[in-house]
Amino acid sequence: MSVSLIVALAALGVVVGFVAGLLGVGGGLTIVPLLALLFSHSGFPASHVVHMAIATAAATIVFTSLSSATAHHAHQAVVWSVFRALLPGVVAGSLIGPQIAAHMPSLLLALVFSAVAAVAAVRLLRGPRPTTRHRDLPGSGGLMLAGSVIGTLASMVGAGGAFVAVPFMTWCNVDIRKAVATSAALGLPIAAASTLGFIVAGWNQSDLPRWSLGYVYLPALAPIVVASMAVAPLGAAAAHRWPVAVMRRLFAFLLLGIATYMLWRTVHAGA
């Protein structure tokens, strides 16, 4: 890769790292379209471009989430009891998600994803609403089921899961700072299982470019990881200084932007 391309990837890593620390997202939803564009211009096989972009994005989240979760843990914001309850379902779903994505029509996948992101954004913008009874997190069985949904959806699109996990936890009256921090910790097992799934899925593909590990393209991974891990603690520190209302709106607008992009991509692809 050229020096200018390495610098561009590192700059992307800086943005992704800060947003990951601030909002608990792994950044995969931002990285995927940019990597797909990069891989297309690099002449990679068209049939593998999206798979490689998602797989490489998932691999970056392994490192970004580790840095972000460590920073949030230092602020004592990660709810580890919820993390442990969600973990089995998250891992199972994250292994299954890549297999579903590989056999799912792109248009349907984009539409489903856009709908989930948009609904979650609207719920966050509306804020907590009065209820006749206090809404708590479900029991261990319910959290395991929720974890499987989070892991499956996140791994299908190369994300860290915050776009589902944070709205779910805030809907259950978890403080948004703790929801963001716990989601950042969940990003690690989601990304690790998803990356493993894409490595296995691409292992026997003979036409992948050099330095690919399954569908993961290692040369693009390194500069993003180094920059994002360095910056993620700064985003986490900002998350514990900014008002809760600001955090909710930021996350909601991020989700709306993602949903809009996916809808545009769906219409453009179907045109």
Key descriptive features of the protein:
single chain; 77% helix; mainly alpha; 271 residues
Major beta sheet, strand line-up = 1-2
Compute the gyration radius: what is it? 18 Å
Binned, the helix content reads: over 70%
> How many domains make up the coordinates?
1
Largest sheet: 2 strands, antiparallel
Strand-and-helix sequence, N→C? HHHHHHHHEEHH
Beta-strand content bin: under 5%
Number of helices: 10
Shape: globular
Please give the number of β-strands. 2
Uncertain segments: none
Structural class: mainly alpha
Report the mean per-residue pLDDT as an integer: 78
Distance between the termini: 33 Å
How would you describe the overall organization of this protein?
- There is one protein chain.
- With 271 residues, the chain is mainly alpha-helical.
- The chain has one domain.
- It contains 10 helices and 2 strands; from the N terminus they run ααααααααββαα.
- The protein has helices at 3-23, 28-41, 49-74, 80-103, 106-126, 140-156, 162-171, 176-202, 218-239, 244-270, and strands at 212-213, 216-217.
- A two-stranded antiparallel ribbon has the order 1-2.
- The radius of gyration is 18 Å and the shape is globular.
- It starts with a helix and ends with a helix.
- The mean pLDDT is 78.
